Request: fold
Amino acid sequence: MAKEPKAPAAVTSADVARLAGVSRATVSFVLNNTQAHRVSDATRARVLDAARQLDYVPHAAARSLRAGRSNLVLVPASVSAAGRLVSAWVDDLESELERHGYVLVLHAGRFPDPVRAARAWAELRPAAVVALDGDGLTGQAVEVLGRAGVRGVIAFGSREVAGAHLVGLDQTRVGALAAEHLVARGRRTLGVVMPQERGLATFARPRLAGAQGVAARSTATVTPVELSYSLESAAELAGRWRESGLDGVFAYNDEYAALLMHALRGAGLAVPEDVAVVGCDDLVLSGMQQPPLTSVRLDLPTPAEVADALHELVDGGTAPQVRGVTPVLVQRQSS
Amino acid sequence: MAKEPKAPAAVTSADVARLAGVSRATVSFVLNNTQAHRVSDATRARVLDAARQLDYVPHAAARSLRAGRSNLVLVPASVSAAGRLVSAWVDDLESELERHGYVLVLHAGRFPDPVRAARAWAELRPAAVVALDGDGLTGQAVEVLGRAGVRGVIAFGSREVAGAHLVGLDQTRVGALAAEHLVARGRRTLGVVMPQERGLATFARPRLAGAQGVAARSTATVTPVELSYSLESAAELAGRWRESGLDGVFAYNDEYAALLMHALRGAGLAVPEDVAVVGCDDLVLSGMQQPPLTSVRLDLPTPAEVADALHELVDGGTAPQVRGVTPVLVQRQSS
DNA sequence: ACCATGTGGTTACACGTGTAATTCCGGGCT
DNA sequence: AGCCCGGAATTACACGTGTAACCACATGGT
Reply:
């Protein structure tokens, strides 16, 4: 272990300086286009040439150590927990942030509590954090980040968190909207799918709570139903559907909805006659179902808008409010 | 700009030392459990207490600057380009790497050429890089990484790259397998779906090439067909399907396959009678289709296996060969 | 008396970078 | 000549950490 097999001698700015016959400071000035300082065109060319020749790559760690902050933007989320909708959005956000010189980095990691999570994120000393699950944040966690030099925390969530920039997104409202719709369509015994895949509970729980809130204000009932994303699990659930007596279900997701509809059909249950199904995210998938799937659409703020706000937050400590997310029900034939 | 709104004075190990009444070195020894050095239980407790009290978080940049290497493992991939299969795999890999003390980080970014990409990755000075698109790598790119202190490069790909640890995965073979199957089922005019979404071309192109190779060795023909992931694009494609005369198609993906089958049905074409369809990844989705979808399954090496190899690579410079990926055709009713 | 040994701690340096402060130097003005 | 000025580069330091080398001091053996 630690044989140090081959140390190809990382090239530093000092090497560039030596080759160009100038001081390290001059190299830094040239490579960063520092306006405050003048450097003759001749040496500038020599430096650039040397850098190219040695294939010099700056050391991000050293740079952000010196600068006190990095150009990293951390998005704490696991790859698979993010659905199609979020994935595409994060992709675009990455491009937008790149325009401002930031580097978006996705990093999951399960932690027992918000402060512990914040500490782990803080180690990277990112310039900003975009928390898609803002309700998993606390003031104390944000404070930990702040003390680590994080200049901007954008939180998608339902409640204000001290020190964080809120983008309204109430998962409770999502569940409520679906339940209200089902009730309006005459359904009274509702189910809410709780995906068993890890990482999804964070969104599933408040959605369930929202649906339950609607039930409490009407004559309907809401029952959570567990479902793993597999044909077997879905078939098993559909097999004992009749005895559950559920006549409407909010399936967390368009993907889970599609899976469930498939299994229900297999069990001889008709959608929407026997069971009304509502999905979420309004994916392309929902239009492909038989019958086409009613879905809750979430139109997220444009990545550009969020990127700009984030930049202003990092740069000036303040930013204009970002438009929140209002869930909208898109009715199709499954309900 | 740069108002420095509030600098909550990041707490460093020096602060911890001051509070505990010891030197910074002692703090470091305690917090890292350095075995080479002894420290009395009394002061150890004082240090730990002080650290907790100040909520000390180490500075990853400073640490890796000193150490010469970080504990980052970079997976260069965009979030959305990774399908369900890869997402789940990366998720598991993250857990496995965590056991070894690494931090997996996902980061996309489009670059004109491999060396440019490598330079961008190298700035982070990761301990290792796991390139899912290993064929997009060159020896020169790996060298850039090596010179930046990257100790292990694992490349999923079809050809050996100097300095990288190859995990066999021949996308050409994937396309070939699908085409061979379609030919064996009596199809002669084949189509291969080329998704228009950005980032997917890297895998789509070699798959097409593989299918074309099969055609060249038989009486069949292969035509690329462009498809965006939307109902409109699929309907448009299906609308002019008859005139194309294609009687079999490899759809890149189970998701694109499902979309295409939906559109074909809408255009009055029967699967598999008129058109045989083959997908890829063998997702849950494929079992939900009508008819169930034939798919190319890729069983990836276990994340644990890759994580172990990666650790040995970083630690000792060498690692045993990781089992490659052999695509397997799973036949169902769509072909 | 003196040295080996072990314990618990500190001092000093290096990692690679950015930048404020400084130096050097030639030239134009009084 | 003396002086200031501005261009062009350098020197010196700080960022936060890990660790090798060193030190003080007690203990016990010869």
The first strand of chain B starts at residue 72 and ends at 75. Chain B touches chain A through 65 residues (CB under 8 Å).
